[in-house]
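Data deposition worksheet. Section B asks for the primary sequence of the deposited chain exactly as it was used as input, without tags or linkers unless they were present during the calculation. Section C holds the resulting structure in token form. Section D is free text for depositor observations; keep each observation to a single sentence. Incomplete worksheets are returned to the depositor.
Section A, Depositor: J.P.
Section B:
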Amino acid sequence: MELGSYPKTCGTSRSFVGTDPTWAFASGSCSAEKWGWIDPQQSQYSNFVSYNIQQFQQHDLEYIISTGGLNAPFICDSAGHLQQFLSRYDSPNFAGLDFDIEKGYDQNSLHQLMQAAAQTQKNWAQQGKTLRVSLTLASSGKPGYSVNEMGDTAIKEAQAAGLNFVVNLMTMDFGNSRCVLGDSGQCDMAQSSIAAARELNSKYAIPLSRIALTPMIGQNDTQGEITSTQDIQTITQWAKTHELAGLHFWSFDRDTPSAATTSAPFAIPTGSGTNEPALGYTQAFLSALEANQ
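Section C:
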């Protein structure tokens, strides 16, 4: 969901409330990327990319391509290679490129990636197009703390390269030592998300209009951290009031009721771990976004 006034790039939101799905995650080399266990260069998966793009177009959805993720990095050493990657996924419905930076990066790989992205962004501008780029980073939710060392390096390399970017903060899995505690002694997921945005703005001089938030709905991976629909409404209302760049959530296929788990992994991929009805979290986002429109 895209908010605020971040410049339109090949399509972000059609209005204040948008619903751009994120297609995740491409990993490995940008010259030969994989999607989990799917290798589009193998003959049995040769239609993987075209089929998905056709589905987005058929349903009039603009999509964001996300790379990296928890399990593997996305490595790209030049603007030429990054452009080749983008050409495989570009269409009138392409809405932007996301780098989800969680694992397997060092300073050199981040330097190369940000330099490649900045040059590609400039090349697109010369062609009259805008390439929207976001950095998805793990975050603390406690005043005085922000992104981790890898996130810090990514931001500084992006700034040094002259990249025009949004930071998308993953406001989840804080742990009690890195969040705003509520009356229950557990993380207040809404206030922790708000604190994460404020801290990033303060530490790196990144405007709130260039910051997006991604909470995990329901039960997080960390025991005791549960993002409620009320938390979602609080986060959304604050993001709307302060004109953040966007709101996302992890993940759509978890937006259905499921039993709470009592042992790790606490968050499961097929349910929220709460009694909220199917699409209850989606509706909480939308109702808060549409209020007083």
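Section D:
The longest strand covers residues 22-29.
The chain has one domain: 22-290.
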